[in-house]
Amino acid sequence: MVGVDGSLSSRAALRHAIGEAQLRAATLRVVSAYEPPELWALAYGEPLPSRPSGVADAVRAETRRMIDDALDGDRAAPEVELVISPGEAGPVLVGASRDADLLVVGSRGRGCTRMPLGSVALHCVLHARCPVTVVRPTSAAGERPADALAAQG
What we know:
Number of helices: 5
Strand content: 15-25%
Radius of gyration: 15 Å
Order of helices and strands: EHEHHEHEHEE
CATH architecture: 3-Layer(aba) Sandwich
Strand order of the largest sheet: 1-2-3
Number of domains: 1
Number of strands: 6
Shape: globular
Structural class: alpha/beta
CATH topology: Rossmann fold
């Protein structure tokens, strides 16, 4: 299982998780969480989507593009299950980790970039119900992550 948010770090985590799923001959569950529109509309003054499912549809489309880019036509690609869920990323990923063999997350998302470990990654390391791998992005686009920090959840 991998959590993605569109950040460079989550793209590296997705590539790492694809490799893990291939090694394990497992289905890869890709999870994207999003804040319900009424919360971010109030916080940022943005207009609400015309349909309640508008945000989920947009997140689903962007996540599908990320997956397609990461797989890049790989014939050995694992089966992929896409899960789009409303809520805060940390709790959504921890909840989904109940039946996962491994949770892969990026070292930090779109928030503060000065911290070596983001709040979602830390939340997952502390609370996930399976092993967690935290992946740092590489400096060059398209390369596999230079290293992955493994932590037992």
